[in-house]
Amino acid sequence: MAQYIKEPFDFMERTKELIENYRGKYKASAIINSSIGLLFVATEKFQKEINRASKTITIEKWGLKPFKISLCGRVKKDGSFLEETMTLATVSRHIRNSLAHCHFTQIVNGTNSRISGFELTDYSYRKPRRKTFEMEVSLDELKKFMISMANYIISDNSPHTMNSMI
Q: Within the chain, how many helices (H) and strands (E) appear?
């Protein structure tokens, strides 16, 4: 059976369009579900591209605000905490882990009881378990981040990227 090489790109393009064009009352659910899919595909299939982007693109350019990240690090083998630089690769890994392991809570706007964002938390997998990431993100910030990531990967649809998938 032949492998459909463009499938991850098509998935990212369709999911990006869902985020961009969704106009219903479940905006937060649409964004969080689409983010999970985009982050899984991006971190599993395009980690090299995300690492490369981290060298020249800041998280601010993709819509995130560093001052809303109160903790960003990892636990070393000896159990000590190491603060990490807030690069696209680091932050996207923590956001992916937060969503994948359901370590997020809704931030609700008090005036209309609508979800306005999320508090995302990541934890180390090493014992003793320790919090390694904490961030507040609005729906619009998360949406811009996901669209920017998808656009970067889709636009980087060059032979070196395609060959890395075969």
A: 6, 5
Six token digits for residue 39: 């982050």
Name the residue ranges covered by the structural domains of the chain. Answer: 7-165
CB 97 within 8 A of CB 103: yes
Q: Cα–Cα distance between 145 and 60 in angstroms, integer? A: 9
Percent of the chain scoring above 70 in pLDDT:
90
> In this structure, are residues 100 and 86 in contact, taking their beta carbons and an 8 Å threshold?
no
pLDDT tens digits, 109-153: 877 888 999 999 999 987 778 999 999 999 999 999 999 999 999
Our CA dihedral for 11, 13, 14, 20, rounded to 10 degrees, sits at: 140
